[in-house]
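Researcher: Checking consistency across runs. Here is Phosphoribulokinase/uridine kinase domain-containing protein again:
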Amino acid sequence: MEKIIAELLPKLEKENRFVLGLDGLSRSGKTTFTAELVRHLRERNFEAVALHLDDYIVERKRRYHTGEAEWFEYYGLQWDVEGLREHLFGRVGASGSLTLPKYESESDDHRMQQIVLPERGVVVIEGVFLQRGAWREYLDGVIYLDCPREVRFARESPATRQNTDKFVNRYWQAEDYYLAAEDPLSQADWIVKEYS
């Protein structure tokens, strides 16, 4: 963390707003890393805002039992890729605020969320598949959390690990596709190994 922050600081001082992506596959530690990174940045008097892609997934009927392969439902349908490109990624670098449909899991619906962005500072966008072609160009830098599948799977609850078919058919095939199609390790500016 300290090494990354030391390398980030000169970039942050040059930019009015720096858009930093935090990429990594499921259970790689993205949310925890983001919280720590934001805390460290604020301690150094940088304004920092974190956005979590999982807050902007679509309703269940649009991502389950659609007739598409399960892995594609996760990779290609879980988020409105083009909508997020237009309303989040395409605007986060220059707009003063964002208005986004935040997903509410209990109601399986959305409520509009207004996010005020710092004029100077860092916006950290955290999420899986973050370096897909539709989004990568809008990020000023990317940290990738590289964590082996067996370590990530062990972080799931025992009950969740029982449903191995869902991992095999949905999550792992989507992850394999992403790794092959986008090669996120080679695109990332910083790689963190096995963060916990």
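Researcher: Does this match what you'd expect to see?
Model: One thing to look at in this run: The chain has eight helices and seven strands.
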